[in-house]
């Protein structure tokens, strides 16, 4: 069925995630039919700047011919084969070697999956397996942070700190705990310094660990900076104090780089930006620029050896997936990593990052903007208005931005922007021009 045949259909067959489902019976979806660079186009031909890289993933923009050709070439050579049971495909092995060499852990091992949710889910499963094989069967609990997003499976939705939505799914599952998000911009007390705020966050975590019994906690699961929690930038000293606390109690640090990996924060990995080395990390999204579904768990050698012990005891490592190590996504991912080097994407992010941050800061002269922040090519704008109900302003700003040809991500009354890494200076200016038009429209409407 063509897009023309779909026009004006409501009550769709597709179940749309992250929506109010009853509204889908009354509200026609916006149908996106093509994209190029940082722009996407709807069925009527209107262009939009994808200011959030469509769930923070299309790092190299839309319709990159090099990635399309990589997929087509692999499809012609070998469109599919499993990577399991002592059988593999060279392109999958090559990608694993490349990722291991990039990782901050020495002699890293790589397990592939299809999505970021699946990678995080697998890492939790691996933790339990590792600890059972390492005579640490009590260390099964995992701590994550409020507001962070780690996925949509039963396990990863439990890790996800969106507690407002847990009850309907009977979440979180047992053994998943949450501590405070180190959101200095929104949670610091008046006059509280970054160092004092970091101390308070660490004290809260220490109390939780001691309350639950340190011998029962296996890992702390966190993003270097939580973009999904309205870009909650951790304060200075937070990561140093956090890693020291985890070391004290022999709790492993699992680094979710699904959003922050591959140059988003101005370094290849967010853990480099914040100066820590994890035991394990997960990657996805920008790994293929979302052109193909692919994710990976990257493990330290020490952690992997626990999986080997369990496998030796059981006679087999009983974990695999039909699409784990699929050759087509692997070929696309390899080309993404090559293009990042060939085009110096990291250098580009570092060069235009200050312009992006300055454009965010320039919005602070607007009556609806109470603050902004950025790291690399991820930024946030906090909104406030005495005449508009708290909690609704972000959604209204996102709707007005869409009307003005810009997609952004609302989180409460905060707007998050994380455009494709290939964005130019002129495109940044145009993105913020469209956003300011949206804010002006809201302000004018509130005055009426």
Summarize this structure as a short list of keywords or feature phrases.
single chain; 448 residues; alpha/beta; Aspartate Aminotransferase, domain 1; Aspartate Aminotransferase, domain 2; 2 domains; seven-stranded mixed β-sheet; 15 helices; 15 strands
Structure description:
- The protein is α/β, with parallel strands linked by helices and 448 residues long.
- It has 2 domains: 31-63 and 344-447, Aspartate Aminotransferase, domain 1; 67-342, Aspartate Aminotransferase, domain 2.
- It has 15 helices and 15 strands.
- It has a 7-stranded mixed β-sheet, with helices on both faces.
- Strand 5, helix 6 and strand 6 form a beta-alpha-beta unit.
- It is globular.
- The two termini are 44 Å apart.
What's the short story on this structure?
Helix content is 40%, strand content 15%.
The rounded Rg comes to: 22 Å
Series of H and E elements: HEEEHHHEHEHEHHEHEHEEHHHEEHEEEH
Cα-to-Cα separation, first versus last residue? 44 Å
Number of DSSP strands?
15
Alpha plus pi helix count: 15
Write the layout of secondary structure elements.
Blueprint: H1 3-6, E1 32-36, E2 39-42, E3 47-50, H2 53-56, H3 65-77, H4 90-102, E4 109-113, H5 116-133, E5 141-145, H6 154-159, E6 176-179, H7 184-187, H8 194-212, E7 217-222, H9 238-248, E8 252-256, H10 270-274, E9 280-283, E10 295-299, H11 301-314, H12 327-342, H13 345-362, E11 369-375, E12 378-383, H14 393-403, E13 406-407, E14 409-411, E15 414-417, H15 425-447
Parallel strand pairs: 3-13, 5-6, 5-7, 7-8, 8-9
Antiparallel strand pairs: 1-2, 2-3, 4-10, 9-10, 11-12, 12-15, 14-15
């Amino acid at each position: 069925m063509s897009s023309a045949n779909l026009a004006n259909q409501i009550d769709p067959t597709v179940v749309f995630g992250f929506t109010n489902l009853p509204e889908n019976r009354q509200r026609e979806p916006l149908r996106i039919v093509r994209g190029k660079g940082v722009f996407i186009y709807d069925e009527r031909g209107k262009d939009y700047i994808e200011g959030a890289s469509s769930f923070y993933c299309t790092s190299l923009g839309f319709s990159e011919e090099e990635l399309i050709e990589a997929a087509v070439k692999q499809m012609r050579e070998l469109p599919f084969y499993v990577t399991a049971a002592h059988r593999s495909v060279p392109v999958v092995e090559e990608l694993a070697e490349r990722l291991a060499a990039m990782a901050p852990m020495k002699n890293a091992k790589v397990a592939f999956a299809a999505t970021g949710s699946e990678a995080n889910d697998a890492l939790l499963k691996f933790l339990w397996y590792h600890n059972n094989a390492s005579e640490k069967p009590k260390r099964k609990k995992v701590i994550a942070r409020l507001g962070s997003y780690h996925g949509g499976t039963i396990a990863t939705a439990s890790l996800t700190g969106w507690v407002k939505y847990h009850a309907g799914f009977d979440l979180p599952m047992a053994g998943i705990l949450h501590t405070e998000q180190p959101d200095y911009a929104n949670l610091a007390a008046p006059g509280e310094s970054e160092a004092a705020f970091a101390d308070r966050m660490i004290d809260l975590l220490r109390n939780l660990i001691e309350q639950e019994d340190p011998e029962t906690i296996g890992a702390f699961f966190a993003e270097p900076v939580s973009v999904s929690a309205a870009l909650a930038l951790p304060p200075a000293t937070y990561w140093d104090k956090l890693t020291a606390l985890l070391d004290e109690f022999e709790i492993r640090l699992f680094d979710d780089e699904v959003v922050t990996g591959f140059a988003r924060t101005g370094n290849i990995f967010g853990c480099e930006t914040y100066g820590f080395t994890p035991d394990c990390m997960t990657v996805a999204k920008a790994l293929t620029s979302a052109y193909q579904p692919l994710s990976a768990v990257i493990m330290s050698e020490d952690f992997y050896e626990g999986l080997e012990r369990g496998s030796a005891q059981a006679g087999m490592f009983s974990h695999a997936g039909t699409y784990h190590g699929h050759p087509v996504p692997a070929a696309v991912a390899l080309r993404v990593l090559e293009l990042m080097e060939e085009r110096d994407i990291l250098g580009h992010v570092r060069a235009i990052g200050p312009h992006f941050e300055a454009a965010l800061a320039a919005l602070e002269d607007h009556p609806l903007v109470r603050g902004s922040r950025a790291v690399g090519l991820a930024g946030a704008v906090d909104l406030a208005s005495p005449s508009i109900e708290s909690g609704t302003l972000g959604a209204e700003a996102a709707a007005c931005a869409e009307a003005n040809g810009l997609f952004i991500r609302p989180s409460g009354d905060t707007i998050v922007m994380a455009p494709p890494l290939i964005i130019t200076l002129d495109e940044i200016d145009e993105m913020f021009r469209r956003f300011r038009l949206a804010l002006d429209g809201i302000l004018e409407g509130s005055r009426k």
